[in-house]
Write a structure and sequence with these properties.
Helix content: 40-55%
Mean pLDDT: 94
Number of helices: 5
Low-confidence stretches: none
Structural class: mainly alpha
Number of domains: 1
Strand order of the largest sheet: 1-2
CATH superfamily: Response regulator
Strand content: under 5%
CATH architecture: 3-Layer(aba) Sandwich
CATH class: Alpha Beta
Order of helices and strands: HHHEHEH
CATH topology: Rossmann fold
Largest sheet: 2 strands, parallel
Distance between the termini: 19 Å
Length: 129
């Protein structure tokens, strides 16, 4: 959801030259986005049905100018995995000082709550990028 929203927000802001991708620390590699996530994003006219999960790796981290994560623990894990990440890993909710819970295997309400926080975080970041 975050990738789709951030990509759309960057495009809407005219920042189309930026690459936006998604990778997880414990991703189920090759799996599609959860049907609840697809449903919520489709209601915002963003199609994430082609998304396939992948694991973040050191090559991705080194290539990135900015790595946005959902939770403080993710930041710690990425910086531990790749020390060169220090200084470029931030929470999506950094400016609002909040973590975004993973709604995986939860009900639609959990996805709606996470999406609300993602939207807030994306809005905060887009004006700064």
């Amino acid at each position: 959801m975050a990738e789709g929203l951030l990509r759309q927000a960057m495009n809407d802001a005219g920042k189309v030259d930026r690459f936006v991708g998604s990778a997880g620390l414990n991703a189920l590699v090759g799996h599609q986005a959860d049907p609840s996530a697809c449903q919520l994003m489709a209601s915002r006219q963003i199609d994430i049905s082609a998304h396939r999960a992948c694991q973040i790796n050191s090559v991705m981290i080194r290539a990135a100018d900015l790595v946005l994560v959902m939770e403080s623990a993710h930041k710690i894990a990425i910086e531990g995995k790749e020390p060169s990440a220090r200084g470029k890993v931030f929470r999506l909710g950094e400016w609002g000082k909040f973590n975004i819970p993973d709604p995986y295997q939860q009900d639609l309400a959990a996805f709606e709550y996470s999406l609300m926080l993602i939207e807030r975080g994306v809005s905060d970041w887009v004006v700064r990028l």
